[in-house]
Amino acid sequence: MFTGIVQGIAKVTEIIASPGLNTLVIDFPGARVEGVTIGASVAINGTCLTVTRQDGTRLYFDAMQETLRLTTLGELSPGDTVNFERAARIGDEIGGHLLSGHIHTTATLVDIARPENNVTLWFEIPAEWEKYVFPKGYIAINGASLTIGEVRENRFNVHLIPETLRATTFGSAEQGQRVNIEVDSQTQTIVDTLARLGYDRPPTARS
Fold first, then answer.
1. Could you tell me whether strands 21-27 and 138-141 are parallel, antiparallel, or unpaired per DSSP bridges?
2. Is there a contact between 34 and 58 (Cβ–Cβ < 8 Å)?
3. Same fold, 8-86 and 105-196
4. Do the Cβ atoms of 29 and 56 come closer than 8 Å?
5. Lumazine-binding repeat boundaries (predicted)?
6. What is the DSSP letter of 2?
7. CB–CB of 190/196 below 8 Å?
8. Rounded to two decimals, what is the model's pTM?
9. Which residues, other chains included, contact 7 with Cβ-Cβ below 8 Å and sequence gap of 6+?
10. How many CB atoms lie within 10 A of CB 60?
11. 3-state secondary structure of 132
């Protein structure tokens, strides 16, 4: 499990393509690999991956074909930066909300607004997932637990403070890029349960 509190930014140094998988070689800040073991779980842009090898501050991860298809990991290139979080341990503070590291879908960054001292990012999510997106609800974007601001049909925004921009890759986000999305598990359970009972969320009117 993960908390959705991104622990830092790491850099992709190499991608080794093999039949059915890509091996991602990622260089981490030195202090962040202390105590890491082979088999440990690390969320890379919100996707739970397993450490298969360590070479100093570089960790190796195998991303299977299905993972590459369902997430943005297949779009990474050497030199790209990623958000990371090592798996939570018993006793860790849950500063965000509990995440599984299993990506549900991807979204596209469609607009960036930069008012003074913060940034607002607008994302467009596939229509079938908008039923889980509510104002003031939780969502994980590239592994960061964030509070949803406004929702307009299948678009929503999040407001980011300078510290979030500094500590994550959102500080260099560009319009048009895709991101990994994990919807809040409690919201998903409630919405799906109500749907089974016949209390579907009314469809959003389209213009």
1. unpaired
2. no
3. yes
4. no
5. 1-97, 98-194
6. B
7. no
8. 0.91
9. 32, 84, 85, 86
10. 18
11. helix
pLDDT, tens digit, 9 for 90 and up, residues 6-33: 999 999 999 999 998 999 999 999 889 9
Neighbours of 198 (CB within 10 A): 6
Contacts (Cβ under 8 Å, ≥6 apart) of 11: 26, 27, 79, 80, 81, 82
Distance CA 41, CA 47 (A): 10
Q: Is the dihedral of CA 41, 20, 74, 146 positive or negative?
A: negative
Spatial separation of the C-alpha atoms in residues 181 and 108, rounded to whole Å: 10
183: Cβ–Cβ under 8 A, 6 or more apart, which residues? 104, 129, 132, 133, 139, 140
Q: Shortest CA distance to 160 belongs to which of 205, 195, 123, 188?
A: 123
The answer to whether domain 8-86 has CATH 3.40.50.300 is no
> Tell me, what amino acid is at 36?
V
Give the CB-side neighbour count of residue 56, counting CA atoms within 13 A.
3
Q: Which amino acid is at 173?
A: A
Residue 178 Cα to chain centre, angstroms: 11
How crowded is the C-beta side of 52, counted as CA atoms within 13 Å? 12
CATH classification of 105-196 is 2.40.30.20, yes or no?
Answer: yes
Of 86, 94, 2, nearest to 41 (Cα)? 86
**Backbone phi, psi, residue 101, to 5°:** 80, 10
Place 118 in a pLDDT band, splitting at 50, 70 and 90.
confident
Q: Where are the domains of the chain?
A: 8-86, 105-196
